[in-house]
């Protein structure tokens, strides 16, 4: 599998102009980005989707496969995804299995997708409410990084991506984590009446943060494209986070992926302290940081309620163990296989 390719919008447009079989799938909420692309490119066919975690299923993938088949898409086709992480996951998985694999590319329109979901070739769908249980590794031809797409993001959507951006810095760049938290606090203090996401994105520095986070993920994926080792570090906060998402769907609660990841990072930090991997105080430090930048910090569900989802986590190994990502300090994480009930077993 090739390394991730990150390009500007202008580079992507130049590449796509010569595609003889270009198909576009886009989130209806990303029409302001998708519709100009449809006008500017030689698109054979396009399809708008209503995206949600509930619709991120095999049934949606089958509908996309049938659409491609009816449009006579050959194995030489390129499928372009325009939207957030749900869209890029769905389209990537569709491309991975249609006629045993066709090319695809991503135009992510959310912060979460630009720094995480659209990079690295992980594709997939949910199964019975469990996150990304079905999927495949298939690298996109390229992923577009365009900060201008993010300027109109709703505040909550922006903060969801912020959780993934800070997660990436906690994994691979401690100074960048500290600097980003500091700059976000300053932006909020300068004008508390301005939405923090919109205000911060006016800064060229934050655009640099997006590129830095994307580059960190791309480098880790290049070293370990199919998650046999170091790439698993990118799951910081996700083992607990996916369990929180599952519980929320079971109870009809409204918790986004980014919000669940933020809560999951703090649970991972607490576990790291209990195991002696991190010094006391790390979880409190991260909680203060997350609170200051507007991220949720407390899971509404006790860990005891998350055990079944942890046991069924797709990273679970034989013997009832799960590969947890533990924090030693910002920018320094380790992988450790532990019993899925290790959190409250360490109290």
Could you explain how this protein is built, in words?
- By secondary structure, this protein is α/β, with parallel strands linked by helices.
- It has two domains: 6-150, Rossmann fold; 155-202 and 226-345, Dehydroquinate synthase-like, alpha domain (Up-down Bundle).
- Helix content is 48%, strand content 18%.
- It has 14 helices and eleven strands.
- The chain has helices at residues 9-16, 31-40, 58-70, 85-97, 111-117, 155-172, 174-190, 196-201, 204-223, 238-251, 257-274, 282-292, 303-311, 342-345; strands spanning 6-7, 22-27, 43-49, 78-83, 103-108, 122-127, 130-137, 143-144, 316-317, 321-329, 332-339.
- The strands form four sheets. The protein has a four-stranded parallel beta sheet with strand order 3-2-4-5, sandwiched between helices.
- Helix 3 crosses helix 4 (85-97) and helix 6 packs parallel to helix 11 (257-274).
- The longest helix is centred in the middle third of the chain and has 20 residues, at 204-223.
């Amino acid at each position: 599998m090739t390394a991730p390719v990150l390009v500007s919008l202008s580079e992507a447009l130049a590449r796509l102009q010569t595609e003889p079989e270009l198909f576009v799938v886009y989130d209806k909420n990303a029409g302001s980005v998708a519709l100009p692309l449809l006008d500017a490119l030689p698109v054979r066919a396009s399809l708008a989707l209503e995206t949600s975690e509930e619709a991120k299923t095999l049934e949606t993938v089958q509908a996309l496969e049938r659409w491609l088949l009816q449009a006579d898409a050959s194995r030489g086709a390129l499928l372009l995804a325009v939207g957030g992480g749900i869209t890029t996951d769905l389209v990537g998985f569709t491309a991975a299995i249609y006629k045993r694999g066709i090319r695809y590319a991503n135009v992510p329109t959310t912060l979460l997708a630009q720094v995480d979901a659209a990079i690295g070739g992980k594709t997939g769908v949910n199964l019975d409410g469990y996150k990304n249980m079905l999927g495949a590794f298939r690298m996109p031809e390229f992923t577009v990084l365009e900060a201008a797409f993010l300027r109109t993001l709703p505040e909550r959507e922006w903060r969801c991506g912020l959780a993934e951006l800070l997660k990436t810095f906690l994994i691979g760049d401690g100074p960048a984590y500290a600097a980003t938290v500091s700059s976000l606090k300053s932006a909020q203090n300068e004008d508390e009446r301005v939405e923090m996401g919109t205000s911060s994105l006016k800064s060229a520095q934050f655009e640099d943060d997006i590129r830095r986070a994307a580059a960190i993920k791309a480098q880790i994926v290049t070293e370990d494209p199919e998650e046999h080792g170091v790439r698993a570090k990118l799951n910081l906060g996700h083992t607990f986070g996916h369990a929180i998402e599952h519980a929320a769907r079971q109870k009809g609660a409204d918790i986004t992926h980014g919000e669940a990841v933020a809560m999951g990072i703090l649970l991972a930090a607490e576990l790291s302290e209990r195991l002696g991997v991190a010094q006391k105080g790390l979880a409190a430090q991260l909680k203060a940081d997350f609170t200051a930048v507007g991220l949720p910090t407390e899971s509404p569900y006790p860990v005891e309620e998350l055990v079944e989802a942890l046991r069924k986590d797709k990273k679970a190994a034989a013997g009832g163990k799960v590969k947890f990502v533990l924090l030693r300090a910002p920018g320094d994480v380790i992988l450790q296989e532990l019993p899925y009930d290790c959190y409250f077993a360490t109290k």
